[in-house]
Amino acid sequence: MASKQLPYPVDKSSKLHDEYKFTLPEVYREVAKEELREDDAVREKALSEMRHWIAENPYIFKCRTDAKFLLRFLRYRQFSVPMACEALERYLTVRELYPSWFKNLDCTDSIMKEILDYEPFTYLGQDGSGRSAFLIRYGRFNGEKHSPLQDARYMALVLETVLEWEEFQIGGCQAFIDYRDTTVNNFEKWSLSELKTIMDVYSRSYPLRYGDIHAAKMPKFALPVVETLLSFANPKFREKIRFLNISVLLVDIGIGETYGRFMETDNVRWNG
């Protein structure tokens, strides 16, 4: 059952817009300026142009126009308004094509709460460059109990949550994937079309700024599925993936230094 709360208006032609104020730590202002070409004047002008484009677009019927939402796409495309508008179109299109995956997400849904309790995704914190780091323990997805659709909705719920964080929008992210405790069902339950959809979403259609993606302990039985999945990714995405042994992965996570002690991540709760 979907939440009845609608915190953001979706009237694309509204003349009333929130007044944006940059409130993040200085490191993010510096990253935004150096990497994204963002400053107060650029941001205000780009938001105005993007809102005008949305209002005039005959194919968009409803769309959030609050600053935080539009900045997802402007920051993703380094404040090129035409490219940000194209990214927004891709995002809206994929949501319309696969509504069962991406619409009416609700963290209070019983299945979502169950997957959240398994903690397949753990937020580790941020490094000195402002990048958000996530530990993905793929073996914590239930290969038998939950369907690909349910797992995909959980992933979408997490993505929609973190994309609301401006730290994530500006600093981007890096992922550490631990394949220990995975089963054959974790991989073989995904159909070819589902693999293609999920990779299109996460490497093309969602405004995600990836750093490196580190993976370890992938079992041999997973190789055909992972190779198929990566065949659908764009080349730049594939270049970011590194396969490591587990000891190197734990060092990369930064035990006791960058992200805190690895063994303490079990105490971090994901609040959808």
Automatic annotation (TrEMBL):
Gene Ontology CC: membrane
Domain CRAL-TRIO: 111-272
Gene3D superfamilies the record matches: CRAL-TRIO lipid binding domain, N-terminal domain of phosphatidylinositol transfer protein sec14p
Molecular function (Gene Ontology), one example: phosphatidylinositol bisphosphate binding
Entries under InterPro entries matching the protein: CRAL-TRIO_dom, CRAL-TRIO_dom_sf, CRAL/TRIO_N_dom, CRAL/TRIO_N_dom_sf
Entries under SUPFAM superfamilies matching the protein: CRAL/TRIO domain (SSF52087), CRAL/TRIO N-terminal domain (SSF46938)
Family annotation (PANTHER family): ALPHA-TOCOPHEROL TRANSFER PROTEIN-RELATED, LD40136P
Protein name (Swiss-Prot/TrEMBL): CRAL-TRIO domain-containing protein
Biological classification of the source: Eukaryota, Metazoa, Ecdysozoa, Arthropoda, Hexapoda
